[in-house]
Write a structure and sequence with these properties.
Strand content of chain A: over 45%
Distance between the termini of chain A: 41 Å
Mean pLDDT of chain B: 92
Oligomer: heterodimer
Number of helices of chain B: 0
Distance between the termini of chain B: 31 Å
Low-confidence stretches of chain A: none
Number of helices of chain A: 0
Shape of chain A: globular
Largest sheet of chain B: 7 strands, mixed
Helix content of chain B: under 10%
Largest interface: A-B, 25 and 28 residues
Largest sheet of chain A: 6 strands, mixed
Strand content of chain B: over 45%
Chain lengths: 112, 115
């Protein structure tokens, strides 16, 4: 089976930097994705790490260490609009294909 | 707007009933995924179709079934509904089936309430 662990809630100050961690236990790991979901909205894709290291997309960066079964999402220069839930998701071997398995999400609250 | 459409937006029905949720993927996407999201379980993968064929099955109950039609739209059928089936159901699409699956585009969801 697969399991993903991420903190349920994080609070950070506007303008600051926040890191959301994700640890996973899976078989047949292929990569780690991050999605953002605002209240009442649909998840939207943020980033993907198929290899170890850091991927940067504007204010967001994502990191993966396959040997540690660990990744994180880094949000810089936090804005109020970044208040949302963030999900890590792993691509795993699954009955011949590699769909995504999502963690339970981290609710980020950005305060003034 | 992701380009994925889902209907209806809201559905209220009684226990024991059957409902059908509909999804149209982004233009050009061949893969469709169905997810269930409830407060305590997060996003649960249900099933994936690629170009009309079932590709992967997750935590989908036997009371639930899905299919993808030749025009690539997909339907999720939920029968013998129970109170615990109340949730937000998302459809997502991606261009590919395997390597393309990490970047999925989600529809707005259908909120199902079973009373």
């Amino acid at each position: 089976g697969q399991s993903l662990e991420q903190p349920s809630e994080v609070t950070a100050v506007e303008g600051a930097i926040v890191q959301i961690n994700c640890t996973y236990q899976t078989s047949g790991f292929y990569g780690l994705s991050w999605y953002q979901q605002h209240d009442g909205g649909a998840p939207t894709f943020l980033s993907y790490n198929g290899l170890d290291g850091l991927e940067e997309t504007g204010r967001f960066s994502s990191f993966l260490s396959r040997s540690d079964s660990y990744g994180y999402l880094l949000l810089q220069e936090l804005q109020m609009k970044d208040s949302a839930s963030y999900f890590c998701a792993v691509r795993v071997a699954f009955s011949g294909n590699t769909p995504l398995v999502f963690g339970k999400g981290t609710r980020l609250s950005v305060i003034a | 707007d992701s380009g994925v459409t889902q209907t209806p937006k809201h559905l209220i029905t009684a226990t024991g009933q059957r409902v059908t949720l509909r999804c149209s993927p982004r233009s050009g996407d061949l893969s469709v995924y169905w997810y269930q999201q409830s407060l305590d379980q997060g996003l649960q993968f249900l099933i994936q179709y690629y170009n009309g064929e079932e590709r992967a099955k997750g935590n989908i109950l036997e009371r639930f079934s899905a299919q993808q039609f030749p025009d690539l739209h997909s339907e999720l059928n939920l029968s013998s509904l129970e109170l615990g089936d109340s949730a937000l159901y998302f459809c997502a699409s991606s261009a590919g089936a395997g390597t393309g699956a990490y970047e999925q585009y989600f529809g707005p969801g259908t909120r199902l309430t079973v009373t």
